[in-house]
């Protein structure tokens, strides 16, 4: 049962009309869920038996929601598009509409070019992450704390902290300001253990119990001409380090925590709310503001964390609504790699980056099975698959970038655990967006470097999103299958091991190479993990055995083979990788989590010779900037012909390439006059 209240109902984008769909309206509000803890699906939620119940025996929890829908429902396409908000943030309009990102989408610039609206979708957001704190417009889900017969539930947990810059002395126990901390049962530091190490596999160095505290550093105004007063305040939810955190080092705290959240209810919230909307449960008579006609189809899109959540949602069986009906007809997990979720477990931290080479390397997020296809775990003998319920499983189009092969073990999505090619079920497509990165900002300006040694990868891939949604809709609605999967394979030599990759990657002056992708060891998370979800602190490595993690092969420029190349990657002005390395002062040489690199080509032949760069210069590839734009146009046309880009986006790609694609691209070459013709119109997003 769901109760709801709409707290805000107004026109979207000032009543702008979006083609046949007409104008849109926005609804924001709060949904209250009442679930039977013994009901199908609900009983699979970890710790549900310890959740408090109301007078009817139900477990109650609440979530924020936001809906963009046609003002006249009959003018929509009859399909629901659910954006799994990433850490509570709304992302779909940014990537599908090339819009200004916002957690409060309302104005015209939040509509971008209106793609989702012009297609007639009802766009839905719902808070599903139960450990988020309010702030910055995030969608939150408030779930109950589990207790045992009225007494706190406790457990030993392990948390990592990495400071990005000097001067940090305190952090929340969750390590993130946006995320709820599990409070310590005691302020006595002798009952906990704090260590630090320079790299994930390095030996841990003990930090004395009197050098830190469960406390926070308070700063405020002062008197007597002092600029700031500080105070150390005891806190059950914060870690204070007297000498401060050294940037790049991994600090690990093992302590006894209490008050676990029943986080698995996030899956129930999504399941029940989408089913509630999809099946037209709301009626005009008794619930007028959410009243809709039933939706023919419901699709889900999620990127990164929320892409993993989609995979987890399906694997754990939540795509059945408890009455045998399919919730999502099709899903689009993006940049999820081989991961699922550390969520339906006791004392989970959903927000943390999972399983990087450096950060949170020993995470329970990446667990067998990794693939949609049935396979065997060669280390344990177990057999399993993500898709195993044909009556309710959705169609799947998973898209990953180069970053997921380097940081998120994406090869395991389409290989077995030894690295052999694994054919996918008919209802699955996998597309690799070659030489692109995890977060490809549609409106990127000058590429930042941050704590990396190189600027971030600049390849624009947002045009692909529109096509995969159209492909999914055609597949689910018209039974028109998408183009075949396109990803690197062992069979054709486009998926390789680290040594082969290193032997092929060009020897670019001044560029250090990673040791390899983030590996995946055979870990034991403790006897209680499967039963109650408690992860031992830290997990133990069971053997020398590893799961095979492979990476895309590269061409002579160091750009990826074996996937779909966006126009910028097909007509490159540099080497675009899925990895970047940390600066000397921030974890020297370890990979920066989930970011890639842009390594510019030499501008001219004289520069190439001067620095000894083996890669051809830009001017030896393109006569001028006009020739570069023409090459971008041809690459876009080829993608359209192959069914991977919309024809309407060709000119957008060409416009983005004007003036050598600056400011994304770092080149000093002059622009050619009349590179872009006025009658084409500048439609750059």
Please give a structural write-up.
This protein has 685 residues and is of the alpha+beta class. The protein is 16% helix and 23% strand. It has 14 helices and 30 strands. The strands form nine sheets. Strands 1, 2, 3, 4, 5, 6, 18, 19, 22, 23 and 28 form an eleven-stranded mixed beta sheet that branches. Strand 1 (2-17) and strand 2 (23-35) form a beta hairpin. Helix 13 (625-641) runs antiparallel to helix 14. The longest helix has 17 residues, at 462-478. 49% of the residues are buried. The model is unreliable at 675-685 (pLDDT under 50).
Strand composition percent: 15-25%
**Largest sheet descriptor:** 11 strands, mixed
Provide the structure class: alpha+beta
How many beta-strand runs?
A: 30
- Rg, Å, rounded: 25 Å
Q: What shape does the CA trace take? A: globular
Mean pLDDT: 93
Helical amount: 10-25%
* Spans of at least 5 consecutive residues with low confidence: 675-685
Straight-line N-to-C gap: 42 Å
Q: Number of helical runs?
A: 14
What does the secondary structure layout of this molecule look like, with pairings?
Blueprint: E1 2-17, E2 23-35, E3 59-70, E4 79-83, H1 92-96, H2 108-111, H3 115-118, E5 122-126, E6 141-142, E7 147-148, E8 151-152, E9 154-161, E10 170-172, E11 193-197, E12 205-206, E13 212-213, E14 215-220, E15 229-234, E16 238-241, E17 250-258, H4 265-278, E18 297-303, H5 305-315, E19 330-334, E20 375-376, E21 383-384, E22 395-401, H6 402-407, E23 428-434, H7 462-478, E24 495-496, H8 498-504, E25 520-524, H9 529-532, E26 540-547, E27 551-552, E28 564-565, H10 567-570, E29 574-577, E30 597-600, H11 605-611, H12 618-621, H13 625-641, H14 650-656
Parallel strand pairs: 4-5, 4-18, 18-19, 19-22, 22-23, 23-28
Antiparallel strand pairs: 1-2, 2-3, 3-5, 3-6, 7-8, 9-17, 10-16, 11-12, 11-17, 13-16, 14-15, 20-21, 24-27, 25-26, 29-30
Helix pairs in contact: 13-14
């Amino acid at each position: 049962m769901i109760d709801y209240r709409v707290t805000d109902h107004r026109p979207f984008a000032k009543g702008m009309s979006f083609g046949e769909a007409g104008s849109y309206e926005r609804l924001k509000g709060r949904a209250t869920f009442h679930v039977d803890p013994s009901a199908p699906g609900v009983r699979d939620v970890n710790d549900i038996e310890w959740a408090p119940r109301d007078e009817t025996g139900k477990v109650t929890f609440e979530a924020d929601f936001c809906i963009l829908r046609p003002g006249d429902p009959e003018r929509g396409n009859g399909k629901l598009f659910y954006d799994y908000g990433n850490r509570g943030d709304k992302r779909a309009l940014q990537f599908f509409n090339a819009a200004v990102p916002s957690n409060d989408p309302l104005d015209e610039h939040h509509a971008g070019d209106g793609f989702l609206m012009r297609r007639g979708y009802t766009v839905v957001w719902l808070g599903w992450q139960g450990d988020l704190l309010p702030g910055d417009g995030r969608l939150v889900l408030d779930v109950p704390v589990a207790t045992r017969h009225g007494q706190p539930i406790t457990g030993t947990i392990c948390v990592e902290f990495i400071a990005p810059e000097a001067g940090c002395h305190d952090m929340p126990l969750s390590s993130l300001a946006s995320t709820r901390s599990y409070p310590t049962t005691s302020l006595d530091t002798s009952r906990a253990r704090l260590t630090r190490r320079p790299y994930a596999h390095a030996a841990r160095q003990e930090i004395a119990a009197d050098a830190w505290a469960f406390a926070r550093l308070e700063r405020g105004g002062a008197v007597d001409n002092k600029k700031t007063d500080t105070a150390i305040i005891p806190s059950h939810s914060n870690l204070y380090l007297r000498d401060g955190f050294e940037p790049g080092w991994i600090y690990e705290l093992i302590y006894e925590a209490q008050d676990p959240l029943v986080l698995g209810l996030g899956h129930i919230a999504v399941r029940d709310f989408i089913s509630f909307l999809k099946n037209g449960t709301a009626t005009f008579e008794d619930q007028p503001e959410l009243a809709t006609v039933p939706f023919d189809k419901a699709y889900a899109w999620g990127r990164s964390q929320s892409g993993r959540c989609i995979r987890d949602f399906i694997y754990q069986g939540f795509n059945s609504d408890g009455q045998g009906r399919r919730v999502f007809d099709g899903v689009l997990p993006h940049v999820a790699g081989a991961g699922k979720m550390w969520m339906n477990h006791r004392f989970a931290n959903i927000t943390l980056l999972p399983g990087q080479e450096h950060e949170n390397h020993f995470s329970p997020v990446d667990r067998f099975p990794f693939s949609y296809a049935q396979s065997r775990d060669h280390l344990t003998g177990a057999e399993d698959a993500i898709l195993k319920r044909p009556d309710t499983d959705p169609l799947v189009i998973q898209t990953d970038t180069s970053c997921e092969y380097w940081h998120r073990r994406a090869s395991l999505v389409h290989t077995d655990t030894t690295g052999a090619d694994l054919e996918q079920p008919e209802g699955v497509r996998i597309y690799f967006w070659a030489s692109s990165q995890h977060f490809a900002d549609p409106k990127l300006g000058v590429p930042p470097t941050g704590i990396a040694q190189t600027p971030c990868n600049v390849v624009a891939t947002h045009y692909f999103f529109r096509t995969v949604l159209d492909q999914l809709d055609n597949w689910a609605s018209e039974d028109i299958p998408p183009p075949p999967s396109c990803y690197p394979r062992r069979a054709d030599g486009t998926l390789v091991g680290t040594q082969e990759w290193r032997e092929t990657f060009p020897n670019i002056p001044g560029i250090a190479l990673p040791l390899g992708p983030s590996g995946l060891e055979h870990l034991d998370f403790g006897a209680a993990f499967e039963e109650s979800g408690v992860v031992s602190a830290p997990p133990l490595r069971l053997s020398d055995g590893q799961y095979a993690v492979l990476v895309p092969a590269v061409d002579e420029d160091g750009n990826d083979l074996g996937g779909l190349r966006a126009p910028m990657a097909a007509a490159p002005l540099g080497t675009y990788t899925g990895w970047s390395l940390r600066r000397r002062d921030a974890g020297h040489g370890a990979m920066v989590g989930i970011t890639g690199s842009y390594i510019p080509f030499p501008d001219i032949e004289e520069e190439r010779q001067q620095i000894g760069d083996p890669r051809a210069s830009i001017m030896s590839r393109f006569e001028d900037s006009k020739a570069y734009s023409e090459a971008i146009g041809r690459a876009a046309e080829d993608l359209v012909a192959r069914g991977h880009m919309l024809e309407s986006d060709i000119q957008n790609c060409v416009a983005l390439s004007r003036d050598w694609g600056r400011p994304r691209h770092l080149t000093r070459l002059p622009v050619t006059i009349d590179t872009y013709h006025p009658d084409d119109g500048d439609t750059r997003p």
